[in-house]
């Protein structure tokens, strides 16, 4: 991965005109881009390292010992987190997994269907629909949270799992991505051939187009999963029962306990560290699909 | 009340979103507090830790008899919760009971979110100090909430280090300034304390002690007195100390602040009754080395304090069972059993005066085991709490305070100008919201 990154970054950084044109004969390490990337990596990883190290510190050590000196309280922190309100943390973790997993799955399914339809079928108003969707991509979801709350309140659905899941189902960005991907990955000829052979539209979609779209849909799924996992405002507005909270919201209640109870920093930090693990695991598992994506692209062109 | 960036972000985004939807203000609320008969079930939004356990006491005891069941839904505290309550209220879905900080009450009342429970709960008035109770009536005949906890302000100092540096506990603010200067002379690297602009409640409390009245009504107009003489006196006092370098100008609740307290680089803190909890996490190595004294006074003959923090229990206009909700709120904040449980589970300092000297407060906080009469002293100080005057946009004033005073403290510049900014921005916002403001 790193060698690929270095080669890709070299022309972009524009070091010498020689390296930018054509493949270099001898692989040289380009110092400036490498250094830039290393700095970037450091910038991204340092906060993670901070969380990982801070999670090992006991409350007494947290602010008094050197920042990057591991502490002795990790087991204690885990135990406290586990004991907090009878293990409600794991409930939050489960809720987050449900919201992110099911929400991303539903939204990927919807995105796949609508993206495919927008890419393959020609119908009146197609561009209008697409342009409206594009406008939706630009609209920050924060603005929608309150109107969505008021709508769902009319349907008496607030403070339920559905209140968080429903608004997630339609993701303009997902549809947009799926359409772009379907346009590129599903050739019109193949669809036409399927029709010639008498396959129904549904069959063409599920048996022919869908497998071709998988790498793109994985991307949509992953984007949605991460977005929902980190989402804060929507569940904050929708939910009032802390048994239904996702992890972001739960940790927030640990921080803001009012003046009489100090913020439970050690628990929040440990909780945040644990909350990152599923995301990392997901990325590691799904990475395979992405390399497939790169390969298939290369073969086709 | 550590105010997180996240919290502010949420408040801002919710405010933006609320503005964007441009919802028409909701009309009159249907006021059908029908006579409660049959089982009633109430929901209660609260951030106090362990509130569910206190509600269980009710559900198994008096609540069972009256067939009133209370379900606690734990929330995050702060301005964000006020916005959440208002959003829910727009959809007529606010819970029956909410916990609200005193300074948030006018905002909630002016949005018609809180019910007047004078009829049901007015009888508990004499259980509370005058200055505390008055915050729940907003100076009217109505009662919009029952006080739960209060935060009378006090002066905390490192007993051992005061002795080491030969300092006397200041009884007036002049002595306070002298103490800060004397310490600087003896140990230039040590600060008496810091002026922090990241929690507006501190400055509001100090101004309140000096006699400031930030929001008052004149006829049917609001009058904003944020830059009145009393507040100016307080601003100039602290601004002067910061400018001459007698005290530090770094914000509170940061890791650096924790470290300064923990290592004895800062040896005093102007805070409120809940300080022991904060010190326990901020400065764990200093256990048993602190002591509490009354807040320094402006003149020798004075004996007043401000309040910083504290909250109340309110019944919303959306509740279908206002009488039942008011009954629970009264029990929660006046019943000895409930208050003892609140102190034990939630670590609150009760607003009810009898509870302040109850068995639950016989022992000092563990962090202050060296001061056995901590709570006796605290109860005496609590009685001297000055009345406070909150208005409908405290959040705006607080945000401007953080920005203007934060900048002034950092640059060691004129605090008076910062106060003027705070006044102007607050008045401008009230006018924008459609309140009539007297000049």
Automatic annotation (TrEMBL), chain A:
Transmembrane annotation, as ranges: 29-53, 97-121, 128-152, 164-187, 208-229, 263-286
InterPro entries linked to this entry: MetI-like (IPR000515), MetI-like_sf (IPR035906)
GO cellular component labels: plasma membrane
Signal sequence range: none
Example GO BP: transmembrane transport
Alphabetic keyword roster: Cell membrane, Membrane, Transmembrane, Transmembrane helix, Transport
Pfam families in the cross-refs: BPD_transp_1
Residue span(s) of domain ABC transmembrane type-1: 93-286
Membrane topology: Multi-pass membrane protein
Subcellular compartments: Cell membrane
Source domain of life: Bacteria
Protein family: Belongs to the binding-protein-dependent transport system permease family.
The name this protein goes by in its record: Carbohydrate ABC transporter permease
Organism annotation: Streptomyces sporangiiformans
UniProtKB/TrEMBL annotation, chain B:
Coiled-coil segments: none
Keywords, in A-Z order: Cell membrane, Lipoprotein, Membrane, Palmitate, Signal
Signal sequence segment: 1-24
Domain of life: Bacteria
A family per Pfam: SBP_bac_1
SUPFAM superfamilies xrefs: Periplasmic binding protein-like II
Name of this protein: Extracellular solute-binding protein
């Amino acid at each position: 991965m790193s060698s690929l990154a270095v080669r890709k970054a070299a022309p972009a950084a524009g070091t010498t005109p020689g390296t930018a044109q054509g493949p270099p004969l001898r692989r040289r390490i380009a110092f400036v881009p490498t250094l830039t990337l290393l700095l970037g990596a450091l910038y991204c990883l340092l906060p993670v390292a901070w969380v990982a190290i801070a999670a090992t510190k006991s409350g007494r050590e947290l602010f008094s010992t050197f920042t990057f000196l591991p502490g002795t309280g990790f087991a204690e922190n885990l135990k406290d987190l586990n004991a907090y309100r009878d293990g409600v943390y794991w409930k939050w973790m489960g809720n987050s997994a449900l919201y992110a997993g099911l929400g991303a799955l539903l939204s990927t399914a919807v995105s796949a269907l609508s993206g495919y339809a927008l890419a393959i079928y020609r119908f009146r108003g197609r561009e209008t629909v697409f342009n409206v969707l594009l406008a939706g991509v630009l609209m920050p979801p924060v603005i929608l949270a309150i109107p969505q709350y008021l709508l769902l309140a009319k349907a008496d659905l607030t403070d339920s799992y559905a209140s968080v899941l429903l608004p997630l189902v339609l993701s303009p960005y997902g549809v947009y991505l799926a359409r772009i991907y379907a346009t590129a990955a599903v050739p019109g000829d193949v669809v036409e051939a399927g029709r010639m052979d008498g396959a129904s539209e549904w069959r063409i979609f599920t048996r022919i187009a869908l497998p071709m779209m998988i790498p793109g849909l994985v991307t949509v799924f992953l984007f949605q999963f991460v977005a929902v996992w980190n989402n804060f405002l929507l569940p904050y507005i929708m939910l009032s029962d802390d048994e239904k909270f996702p992890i972001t919201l739960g940790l927030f209640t640990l921080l803001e306990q009012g003046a009489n109870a100090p913020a439970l920093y050690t628990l929040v930090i440990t909780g945040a560290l644990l909350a990152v693990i599923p995301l990392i695991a997901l990325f590691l598992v799904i990475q395979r699909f992405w390399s497939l994506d790169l390969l298939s692209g290369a073969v086709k062109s | 009340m550590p105010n997180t960036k996240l919290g502010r972000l949420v408040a801002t985004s919710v405010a933006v979103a609320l503005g964007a939807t441009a919802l028409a203000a909701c009309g009159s609320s249907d006021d059908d507090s029908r006579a409660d008969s049959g089982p009633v079930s109430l929901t209660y939004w609260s951030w106090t830790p362990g509130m569910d356990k206190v509600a269980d006491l009710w559900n198994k005891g008096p609540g069972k008899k009256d067939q009133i069941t209370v379900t606690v839904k734990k929330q995050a505290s702060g301005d964000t919760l006020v916005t959440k309550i208002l959003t829910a209220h727009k959809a007529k879905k606010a819970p029956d009971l909410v916990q609200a900080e005193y300074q948030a009450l006018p905002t909630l009342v002016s949005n018609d979110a809180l019910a007047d429970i004078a009829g049901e709960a007015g009888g508990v008035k004499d259980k509370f100090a005058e200055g505390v109770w008055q915050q729940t009536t907003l100076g009217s005949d109505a009662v919009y909430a029952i006080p739960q906890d209060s935060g009378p302000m006090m002066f905390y100092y490192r007993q051992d280090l005061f002795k080491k540096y030969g300092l006397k506990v200041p009884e007036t603010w002049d002595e306070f300034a002298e103490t800060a200067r004397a310490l600087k002379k003896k140990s230039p690297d040590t600060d008496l304390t810091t002026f922090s602009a990241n929690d507006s409640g501190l400055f509001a409390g100090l101004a309140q002690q000096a006699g400031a009245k930030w929001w008052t009504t004149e006829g049917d107009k609001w009058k904003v007195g944020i830059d009145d003489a009393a507040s100016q006196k307080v601003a100039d006092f602290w601004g002067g100390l910061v400018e001459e370098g007698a005290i530090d100008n770094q914000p509170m609740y940061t890791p650096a602040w924790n470290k300064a307290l923990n290592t004895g680089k800062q040896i005093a803190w102007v805070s409120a009754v809940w300080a022991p909890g904060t010190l326990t996490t901020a400065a764990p190595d200093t256990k048993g080395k602190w002591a509490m004294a009354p807040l320094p006074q402006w003149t020798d003959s004075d004996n007043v304090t401000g309040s910083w923090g504290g909250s109340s229990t309110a019944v919303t206009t959306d509740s279908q069972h206002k009488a039942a909700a008011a009954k629970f709120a009264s029990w929660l904040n006046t019943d000895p059993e409930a208050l003892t449980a609140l102190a034990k589970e939630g670590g609150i300092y009760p607003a009810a005066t009898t509870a302040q000297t109850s068995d639950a407060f016989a022992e000092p906080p563990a962090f202050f085991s060296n001061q056995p009469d901590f709570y006796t002293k605290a109860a005496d100080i609590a009685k001297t709490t000055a009345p406070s005057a909150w208005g409908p946009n405290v959040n705006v004033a607080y945000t401007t305070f953080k920005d203007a005073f934060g900048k002034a403290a950092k640059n060691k510049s004129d605090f008076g100008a910062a106060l003027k900014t705070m006044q102007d921005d607050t008045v401008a916002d009230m006018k924008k919201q459609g309140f009539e403001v007297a000049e």
